[in-house]
């Protein structure tokens, strides 16, 4: 079908007249009915046509008009979209609040975890940034210390900052303080034992002296009873008895002196042995320190 030019001109004039008529009808509508919903319901679709030249633009325009044929359908389609948008915004706000609460809870948990770590590591460890330094009271060579650290999932302590070096120094000082406390406790126990032994010895000596005094009193009573004039034989017997008693006393005194001397000698020997042991231990420690310095490592500094 072919369309001639006069027919096209008549169609254009007809459309222009329709546009003028619509403008007049819109001006006559009252002001109370100017709401968007009433306006869309009372409005009509106006399509300005051009020359009949088929192409992609005309096809797209026709497809859009077929989808939205009237304003009532436009309103019906826009209402659920608004509801969806409102729900989505509410959900987003709720999610933001939940994320903030989770962040606060994570901060609290982190602080509690750090406090627990510090409580666990107070005597034998310290925390510096992301590293944890811990001391294990074990003895052995450098290789044994390295193997034990690897078994625990760590490495030997190698300070790389001032803070790390200070942490290791504090751990060492704590260990030295513990050793000093242990030594003091041992010394106190030894002193108590020595004092108890001396007290027991003094009690034994006092008991022996009391027994001797009782014997002397008994002898004096016997002498008084016999000293009422019964002859020379009795006097001789008394003298002999006195001599024997004196000899016994002298022997006892000698024995006591010997015991005291022996005890003093034993104590001196024990003290000498202790001093020798301490000197040997100090020498061994010095040798170990020298070896560790030569090898370039230490056993008491570890990272779990």
Automatic annotation (TrEMBL):
An annotated GO cellular component: extracellular region
Family: Belongs to the PRP38 family.
Protein name: Pulmonary surfactant-associated protein D-like
Subcellular location: Nucleus; Secreted
Biological processes per GO annotation: mRNA processing; RNA splicing
Basic residues bias spans: 171-192, 230-296
InterPro entries reported in the protein's UniProt record: ARM-type_fold (IPR016024), C-type_lectin-like/link_sf (IPR016186), CTDL_fold (IPR016187), PRP38 (IPR005037), Surfac_D-trimer (IPR015097)
Major location (coarse): nucleus
Span of domain Lung surfactant protein D coiled-coil trimerisation: 93-134
Region span, Disordered: 151-304
Biased composition (Acidic residues): 195-226
Coiled-coil stretches noted in the UniProt entry, renumbered to this chain: 85-112
Source domain of life: Eukaryota
Signal peptide bounds: 1-26
UniProt keyword terms in alphabetical order: Coiled coil, mRNA processing, mRNA splicing, Nucleus, Secreted, Signal, Spliceosome
Zinc-finger listed as a keyword: no
